[in-house]
Specification:
Length: 394
């Protein structure tokens, strides 16, 4: 065997051994006598076998490398599949969480819708109630205006009657003074029949005045003790007549002062006009705000509620400005003016003033009722005084 051929077979054997095959052994046919165990190859066949073996081994290596690549790519695909499966599981879990969140959002939206409808119904009922209260307040305002006009007329009548009463009282005092001076001139003389008649008239007048004063006190509810009536016997003592006259004069002055105080506590015409002007302004603002509310149909309920709150806050500020005015009459429960915006709790201070107004209106009505019998009694006094002066002059 040539050396070149031996090298080639060595290369083939190395390849066979590299791939786990047994190498090929070459034997000398001369030395080996058992020919059945030998395979004879010519050079051409041997070369083809070597070439075939090389090709097979090379193809085997290529296929093995391809199988390794396939195994590697299969493992990568498995990893990608596992990753995709984990992502799919994560996405499925995320989808379930989103579905649960969606259910919660739907429940929350349903609760908000129910709450919104409830608030809308409540605000509608409150609006109707406020409108009803407004109508009631307007009716009460009209009734109070009518009562105020009646009371102004009654006050004017009482002022006229008081004026005439004071004038008549002054004339009566003047006549009484003249009678007193006439009696003083005759005090040194002996009591005549004419003097005795004058004293009788004065005693009768004092008795009637005492009775009328007792009746007036009983009408006003005074609990004075029962006075003893003046004896009908005429006393010639001049001190007794003078003392009775002074007591009557004091009582008349006290009654006049009481009437003047009652007139001072009542509002003047200028104050009434000022209050009517304020009331008209408040009614105009109220009508203007009520006219604006139906036109703003597209405004949200919160905006409407803010407008209503601003409107009533303005009304309360107007009332508070009237109460804090230093020129406010009727001895109002005035509060110190504050530059800070009033809260809903501070508006509670207006309640005592409103209650005081109601009590004063009631007392004015009661005093008017009580003064009617006093006017009739005053008319009776005028008649008695006229009769007494006529008797004295005669």
């Amino acid at each position: 065997m040539e050396q070149q051929e031996q090298v080639e077979w060595d290369d083939v054997n190395k390849l066979l051994q590299h791939h786990g095959f047994k190498p090929l052994y070459f034997a000398d046919p001369v030395e080996n006598k058992n020919l059945s165990d030998l395979v004879l190859l010519d050079k051409k066949s041997a070369g083809e076998i070597r070439t075939t073996l090389r090709i097979m081994l090379t193809d085997s290596e290529r296929r093995q490398a391809l199988i390794q690549e396939l195994i590697k790519s299969n493992n990568q695909l498995k990893e990608e599949v596992q990753e995709h499966m984990s992502q799919a599981a994560h996405q499925s879990q995320r989808a379930s969480e989103l579905e649960g969140l969606l259910d919660q959002v739907k429940t929350r939206v349903q609760d908000l819708e129910d709450r919104y409808l409830g608030k809308a119904v409540q605000q509608h009922s409150q609006t109707q109630q406020i409108q009803q209260e407004k109508q009631d307040a307007q009716r009460r305002n009209q009734a109070l205006e009518q009562k105020l006009s009646k009371q102004r007329e009654e006050a004017a009548q009482l002022q006229r009657k008081l004026y005439f009463t004071i004038k008549e009282e002054e004339r009566r005092l003047a006549r009484h003074s003249q009678t007193y001076q006439h009696i003083c001139k005759k005090v040194s003389q002996q009591n005549s029949a004419a003097d005795q008649q004058v004293l009788d008239v004065i005693d009768f007048y004092e008795t009637k005045m005492t009775q009328l004063l007792d009746e007036l006190r009983s009408v006003k509810g005074e609990s004075d003790q029962t006075r003893s009536k003046t004896s009908s016997n005429v006393t010639p003592a001049f001190k007794t007549i003078l003392k009775a006259y002074q007591e009557h004069q004091k009582e008349s002055k006290a009654q006049i002062e009481e009437l003047k105080q009652e007139l001072d506590t009542r509002p003047t015409l200028k104050e009434v006009k000022l209050y009517k002007h304020k009331l008209r302004r408040l009614e105009g603002l109220n009508k203007h705000n009520n006219a604006r509310l139906p036109e703003d149909g597209n405004i949200s309920d919160q905006a409407k509620e803010a407008i209503m709150c601003s409107h009533y806050h303005h009304l309360l500020n107007e009332i508070n400005s009237i109460l804090t005015n230093p020129n406010a009459p009727l001895r109002l429960h005035r509060q110190k003016p504050s530059s800070v915006t009033l809260d809903s709790a501070e508006f509670q201070t207006l309640l005592p003033t409103l209650e005081s107004w109601s009590q004063q209106l009631h007392l004015l009505k009661v005093n008017t009722t009580c003064l009617q019998p006093f006017v009739s009694l005053t008319t009776g006094k005028k008649n008695i005084v006229s009769h007494s002066s006529f008797s004295v002059q005669s």
